[in-house]
Design goal:
Blueprint: H1 4-13, H2 22-27, H3 48-63, H4 74-84, H5 91-108
């Protein structure tokens, strides 16, 4: 399972028009505290695009129904992102994501 980022990056890396997203795919499971994979990068060693994808991908994974569990509510997922901000996720990326989510909510109202 932990190799899916490597395999995904290898596949996408063969598509010339997508070369700019390869680092995001490869490193989006790295964590700010260095406990992620595939290389145990930490903090600013993690490419910016990967730090952005990490937040968005995790939010999507948490809020999407799976065969084995129901997705979390927006409030539950937001709470989890905040809880893991600084250890798993870049705090700036979490804050930017949540600001955008708030704007989207306001626009829907």
């Amino acid at each position: 399972m932990k190799q899916h980022t490597v395999f995904g990056a290898e596949i996408v890396g063969k598509i010339h028009s997508l070369k700019k997203v390869v680092e995001g795919i490869l490193y989006h499971h790295e964590k700010m505290d260095g406990s992620g994979y595939p290389n145990g990068l930490q903090g600013d060693e993690i490419p910016l695009f990967a730090r952005i994808i990490a937040v968005a991908d995790t939010y999507d994974a948490m809020t999407t129904d799976r065969p084995y569990r129901k997705g979390l509510t927006n409030e539950e997922a937001t709470s989890e992102l905040n809880r893991m901000s600084g250890t798993q996720f870049d705090p700036e990326m979490v804050a930017a994501f949540l600001r955008r989510m708030q704007r989207e909510k306001i626009d829907e109202d």
